[in-house]
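This follows on from our talk about sequence and fold. Please put the record directly below this note.
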Amino acid sequence: MLFASSVNDFALLFVSLELITISFYVLTSFERTRQASLEAGIKYLIIGALSTSFTVYGIALVYGISGRLNFDELSAVAGSLTGNKIFLFGLLLVLVGLGFKIAAFPFQIWAPDVYEGAPAPVTAFVATVSKGAMFALLLRYFNQSGFNHGLAPVVLMFSIIAIASMFAGNLLALLQNNVKRILAYSSIAHMGYLLVAFQIGGPMGASAVIFYLVAYFVMTLGAFGVVTVLSERERDADLLEDYRGLFWRRPALALVFTAMLLSLAGIPLTAGFLGKFYIIAAGASVGAWALILILVITSAIGLFYYLRIVATLYAQPAAGDRAHEPIPRRAPVANLVLAALTVILVWLGVYPAPLLVAIRAAISSIV
């Protein structure tokens, strides 16, 4: 993933994408005694192979028309190829491969099954760092080369994917009763929010993307961290019923999960709220009011399924319910990690200045 975020060539990009994907195939099906894990690994393998074929064919078309694989050389001639339909189609196929990696709509078909079937720690890993690597690549290339400003169809494509991801992720999450699947569809919606800031471009857009990525990492790792703590050797705690009355058994754990869910929903005094605020501010600076309106509407939809989980956490368990069963204590390091993530979550929501200064310094060379 570090390799993918620093490449400057389509051939090397393809190699790095394959290294990431093949590693994830193994991680997803790591629990060989779990049928769900093996099933998720096979589904990921099939869809990943299909995505790879799109990517390599797109690279072939781009190279066949432009004669270049290097990003800097390609951006220099891209403006003269905007009328070439084969070139544009090749770029579209490459975007399909990148869309698969960030699980944006309509390339998200693998995400719910893989999130549900993979072990919880693996799910947390897949849901965060791979997407960070892809956005690092996109930010560096599209901002440094000015490619997004010189090729209007690419900008339009990112806008369509962002809108579709925000609606699909939030609406499909409303239909789920599995916590890991809810978080999977939620991540699709969050990729839509990130794409809104990304396609805006400029210093404000890049800053908003990186800040929201940091917030998303903290929120997602915290949420899946709670799932990991509650999971057993035989199965993950992925059903809503596994969380019913959690506050009455492990109040600290319930409060951590509540903080992560409220941040994902964009409630004030959390990192998630400020992340969405910066995206809205970046959109307002360029007059992207339609995207801002859709972001606000879909975020409001997301409140329903987040609050549904929160209500389950604090529900009074019925007599004889599984919620009365004690939860075994895990290693102290797990509690320390969850406590640290919660502190970071609130700290970024109340005092984000140090992180913003670091972000501005990091992007100064590409915008």
About this structure: Residues 21 and 46 are 11 Å apart (CA to CA). Residues 4-363 form one domain. DSSP finds 16 helices and no strands in the chain. The chain has a mean pLDDT of 83.
